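User: Predict the structure for this protein chain, please.
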Amino acid sequence: MRTTTTLITALALTAIISFSAQAATLRCTVEKVEGDIVTMNCGDKAETLSVGDKVKLKVKKVKADPAPIEGC
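Assistant: Here is the predicted structure, written as structure tokens:
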């Protein structure tokens, strides 16, 4: 019984730590692009970033309109 309780506690702690280690999400807008330099505006939440932080970007894909169907 003691082993089972210890195992359940260890699994619960592992789950809590893994969920709390996820990065925060910021919503920013791109201001300008010059070559390989992108300038973004994150508003007040920019204070949470510092020089050297790694940032992962997710770009929205724009679906192209399908080709129109031509009749005879």
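The mean pLDDT is 82.
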